[in-house]
């Protein structure tokens, strides 16, 4: 049987609509929706724990810029340091310099989740220094909300037809029509069915979100400080490690590695997560 007939042909226009010459893309919209839902979840936790509103107000800005800066620098330094260290301004600004000396606006073409996680952790440390809240309490609250944002980010990747999976003959394989593949002589090859790795991750993170909400509603006062943070890191990056076996490498240099860059970068986060789940001082009680 022709597996192409069983596959999902995927070719959405990444632009949702154009407003007065400004392109509104699914990618940016889904990012914004994910952050909005996380904002609402964390706000609920602050009210539930009776933390004063003025301490919540600056949290969004710390999280937004921490994730954005960390994710951008993570992509540039982890996946393409040779290029970006010699094109410094393209790492900082959402532009690309053209061979003729001109430049064009491209948006940030490349954001790494590992870098975004590290950037968020650093930003929250700065936030806690300012507000005097306990660092681990804030990390726990953010961890409860993080999976919903991660879910929408992977849906954004799906709408952009990026971070594609390896060839597959499963009935739910996606044929990413916009992804160009070239033969040995430079000819464009027909698109083939692939694992929708972005969708696998989105579903996994949505499940984690519901688990987090259940645990928070029923066991938040019984679980030790740092548990939610540790559980979030362990779940997300363990899943990320194994899902990478079904995804194409993002850069050519990864083809010669035993594990790709995403897998190597996941290992430290898994170790940190396990520590906070099982070995962090359980006598430190949570607030609220």
TrEMBL record:
Membrane topology value: Multi-pass membrane protein
Pfam families: LGT (PF01790)
Main location, first listed in the record: membrane
One GO molecular-function entry: phosphatidylglycerol-prolipoprotein diacylglyceryl transferase activity
The protein, known as: Phosphatidylglycerol--prolipoprotein diacylglyceryl transferase
Annotated localization: Cell membrane
Keywords: Cell membrane, Lipoprotein, Membrane, Transferase, Transmembrane, Transmembrane helix
Listed pathway(s): Protein modification; lipoprotein biosynthesis (diacylglyceryl transfer)
Protein family membership: Belongs to the Lgt family.
Organism superkingdom: Bacteria
PANTHER family (UniProt xref): PHOSPHATIDYLGLYCEROL--PROLIPOPROTEIN DIACYLGLYCERYL TRANSFERASE, PROLIPOPROTEIN DIACYLGLYCERYL TRANSFERASE
Enzyme nomenclature, EC number: 2.5.1.145
NCBIfam families listed in its UniProt record: lgt
Amino-acid positions noted as binding a 1,2-diacyl-sn-glycero-3-phospho-(1'-sn-glycerol) in the UniProt annotation, renumbered to this chain: 154
Chain's role: Catalyzes the transfer of the diacylglyceryl group from phosphatidylglycerol to the sulfhydryl group of the N-terminal cysteine of a prolipoprotein, the first step in the formation of mature lipoproteins.
Entry's transmembrane regions: 20-39, 59-85, 105-126, 138-156, 199-216, 223-243, 263-280
Cellular-component GO terms for this entry: plasma membrane
Protein's GO biological process: lipoprotein biosynthetic process
